[in-house]
Batch of 2 targets.
Target 1
Amino acid sequence: MKKSVSVMMAIALCAAMVSGCSGSGGQKDTAADTKAAVETTASGAAEKGSEEQTAAAENKKIDKLNVYFVPSREPEEIVTATEPLKEMLKTELAREGYDIGEVVITVGTSYEAVGEALSAGTADIGLIPGGTYVLYDDGADVILTATRDGLSKNSDSAKDWNDGKATEPTDQQVTSYRALIAGPSEKGQELAKKVNSGEALTFDDLSSANWSVMSSSSPAGYIYPSLWLQENFEKNILDLGHAVQSDSYGSAFARLASGQVDVLCTYADARRDYEEKWNSEYGRSGSIWEETNVIGVTPPIYNDTVSVSKTSKIMDDAFKTAIQNAFINIGKTEEGKKVIAIYSHMGYEPAQSSDYDNERAAQKMIQELNAK
């Protein structure tokens, strides 16, 4: 009996030992699995970090990127407003494969100075108007056109603007705007009546009116209206019998409201900006939309450009594409929109040189006028 008990105890002990050995083996396996998982995770993280380091190492290094702005506003105001653009460009261009060491923003002393800097390669990128671009296109390539809010009216036909209703902004972004010619005086209404009835104006009709124009460098206030006269009547502003220069659009609208001038040259649709003043400051009783009429619509005036230097040592086709993508992406963010708002830009779209052919025609006309 004692022997039987001893045998049973031995069997139980062996079973316990086997069970214990089995449990110990499971724990070792689990620990091994955990260790392997940790090592795999660490290896994956290391590989990912290595990939990112490799990608960063593969980025092309550019020590300095020179971005120039035209002095359309106070230089200090532009410098302050565009300060965040430096880091934005670095971030976006890094994603495009370029590591920029330093972004330097400069406001030129004049529009011409920025054009010359692009031609010389001193500026790599220039945010410049279309007129400046075409004057310096031997040394600069246009890559982007700025967009602005579109308008509810955008017809080539003058009478389509004369429905007595306000022109409203739209959600659609556009790359160009137009110049308009309008007036509420007796002579202005006489001209508008012909336009709205579908009757063609003659140059004698126009020359018999008193005109308000802006300086000869103003696209909407002088250059494109002169181009409109040339295309439709083979004449220009200098051929008009009565044209006076206004120092601002505000003073031009004041003259229009008082009857001092019959017609003014302005951007589309400037009446939105002077709708309230038309009554409160200029003393008119009726709505600006009812009292003024458009008698002519110029060809589209393309918006400002982002242009790059043809002589810059860092510029090639791949980098141009990267700059395009960077500015387009910046223009899609709220932070980016705040920066480019200094120039009333809402975003950017790819551009080509032929977009600015009307500007070339306008500049050629101005040069011919100046040569007389």
Target 2
Amino acid sequence: MGIVHPIWNVLNHRIYSYLSGILSTYHNDIRLYNDGEHNQKTLVTNILNDKIMASQVQLKVAEINQLNPIMIADDSRVEQKFIQMYNAIWGTDMGAQIYEKEKFNFRKILQDSPMLQQCSKLSLYGCFLDIAVNGLSLDPTGRPHCYILPRNTKTGYKDQKGNDIYEQRAYLSITGYGELVMRQRAGQVRYVDNPVVCYEGDTFSPGLIEGKKTITYQAACPRKSNRVIGGFIRIVRADGTIDWSWMMEGDIKRLESYSLKNNLRWNPQTRQKEGKANSLYSSCEGGIDPGFLESKLIKHAFDGYPKVRTGKFTIFETQEETQEIDYGLDEPTEVPIEAQQALPPQPIDNLQGFGDQQAQMETSSTQGITVQISQEDDEAGF
């Protein structure tokens, strides 16, 4: 039996107040149908269904590939997806403001980097949405949280000669400062001191006393040399206990060797691999740049800490297992590794297999106890 019009008008205000609280954008949809008679359950169900359908922003991979790389973030569907994801993940209504800020940063980065413009459109789309997933910023000023970097990645296919086919893909690389923000927000640490860089002539002696890490440090004043010999950082955990992390010259050299290995590229003219390590490893009188070391100290200080959430398009040395995140694609982008290996030789496909990019990247992640060599260190992109 329908609700009589006068009674419904009395109840309408209460139902209106309740629904407008949880469905604020749909308060105008609470209205009378069929001369004042309407089934309340049907009305609420229709409103909820409309809300769900409106929130499902879906894009086809082919549609993403038609976008100009620099204008990907300007697409209205990408805008809606970014705002929706940011507000849902972080429980805020600041998604629109964050979108405008990061859209500017994203376009500026791509305009300044022709190499990034050559990356697959899907990887650029994923990097932009991962800004919302990670809750970080692409702002390059001060101490940047993350960068967008290009990388040659195996597609899982082979050419007619049986050689691996690579394509240029973009990925989001989180810096040590970005990781610090994420871990503080996750409640893993209470405070982290600024990293301390030690120079030749300083008193620097890390050690253990009754199982607890200790650091003995005294800077030489005036400084006797600009040659960096190591560094350390002090961390206050969430429970108030103190943790120390340090890097010695051997650790720095190890990271430099991984950077060199990752930057080697095959030169068909000389028929050999050529390349060099990140220049920041030798930019300060032949030694590592102090600011670069500070960032490395922060990143490696958290090697033994619990993993934190990142997006599927993000490279992070403490990457947790891939989570199911809705990127608004109405078709799968993942191709099982077994299926890829069984496929016959065929031309490059910029789209297939992208979901498995982390498993297929040429440099595999390594695990360590004291100083773990991360994906980002292999890339050494910042």
